[in-house]
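thought: user wants a sequence for this fold. calling inverse folding tool.
action: design(structure=
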């Protein structure tokens, strides 16, 4: 028995397609008028594109294409400030004693130099910048007074039980890096220590400091951990607040204790600010030191060349007290002398 594959259903559908030859004819006529040639293959006519001899590959609205390929489109040019160009070879970071270093453009985020920038290290007193941010969030009344808290905190600037204004405690904490001043300020806002530290860690995550953990506000505990890459974010945030920058740019401060009827003079811990480390920077936005045995000598700062170019510098784990300043200075000065900024560079805070 033979099978008829062209059954009635197929015949029915084919009968409904009687209009296709007319449709094909119209398409071929339109393409013909458009200058498209046709290739005859049996009873089928297929359009053939003809390219002028003078154009290869052809251009379509200014966009070039290769034969048989996708359209080639140039990538869009990024908007915003153009990045500086390195003149010569990159800086040899092995010459520095510091365990971790990063130098970053304060406006564009461009990283000029780096060394172990993701290594986790103890922050020491650089942690006080985060404490200051949390204190400002909570709110401070500068004329209020508070007694210095008791506790086993290394400090040479004040005694437990002495009474100072919040403003005096603030400047003592950031100018002289007083541990007792920071703990007293934290106590003054009405939070217990655990709540205060929890907010420090929340703030770190909000700033994108994913490798940072705080266990207390002073930096005395080696458990306050961060990286150079994270601390540059903390520095940038802290310098947005006038209350912080005013203190970080204060080179000396004097306390008066009514309880002991005695004054106490303090110099900034930042030798760069004091001019004890010679440098060529036209601008100094602020800096913060830190040291415990576990961390080595730490220093963070922001400096400028007076031409609108600001760089953030983080130095962690330098060998000596002085080398943290000289190495931060040297790497920043190298950036200003070995990079060329385009004339269209715009410093956009």
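)
observation: tool returned 349 residues.
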């Amino acid at each position: 028995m033979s099978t008829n594959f062209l059954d009635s259903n197929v015949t029915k559908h084919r009968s409904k397609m009687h209009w296709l030859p007319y449709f094909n004819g119209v398409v071929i006529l339109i393409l013909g008028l458009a200058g498209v040639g046709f290739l005859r293959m049996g009873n089928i006519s297929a359009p053939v594109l003809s390219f002028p001899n003078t154009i290869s590959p052809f251009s379509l609205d200014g966009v070039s294409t290769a034969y048989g390929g996708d359209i080639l489109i140039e990538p869009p040019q990024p908007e915003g400030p153009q990045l500086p160009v390195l003149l010569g070879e990159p800086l040899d970071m092995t010459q520095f004693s510091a365990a971790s270093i990063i130098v970053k453009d304060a406006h564009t985020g461009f990283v000029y130099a780096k060394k172990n920038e993701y290594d986790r290290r103890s922050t020491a007193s650089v942690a006080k910048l985060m404490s200051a941010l949390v204190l400002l969030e909570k709110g401070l009344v500068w004329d209020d007074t508070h007694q210095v808290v008791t506790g086993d905190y290394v400090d040479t600037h004040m005694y437990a039980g002495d009474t100072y204004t919040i403003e005096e405690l603030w400047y003592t904490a950031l100018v002289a890096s007083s541990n007792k001043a920071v703990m007293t300020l934290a106590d003054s806002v009405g939070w217990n220590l655990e709540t205060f530290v929890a907010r420090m860690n929340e703030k770190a995550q909000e700033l994108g400091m994913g490798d940072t953990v705080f266990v207390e506000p002073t930096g005395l505990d080696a458990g306050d951990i961060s990286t150079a890459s994270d601390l540059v974010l903390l520095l940038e945030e802290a310098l947005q607040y006038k209350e912080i920058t005013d203190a970080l740019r204060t080179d000396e401060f004097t306390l008066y204790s009514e309880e002991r009827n005695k004054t106490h003079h303090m110099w900034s811990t930042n030798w760069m600010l004091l001019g004890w480390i010679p440098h060529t920077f036209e601008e100094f936005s602020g800096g913060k030191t830190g040291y415990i045995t576990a961390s080595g000598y730490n220093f963070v700062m922001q400096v400028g060349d007076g031409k609108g170019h600001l760089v953030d510098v983080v130095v962690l784990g330098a060998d000596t007290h002085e080398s943290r300043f000289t190495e931060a200075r040297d790497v920043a000065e190298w950036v200003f002398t070995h990079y060329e900024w385009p004339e269209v560079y715009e410093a956009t805070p």
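thought: summarizing for user.
answer: Here is the designed sequence. The longest strand covers residues 283-292.
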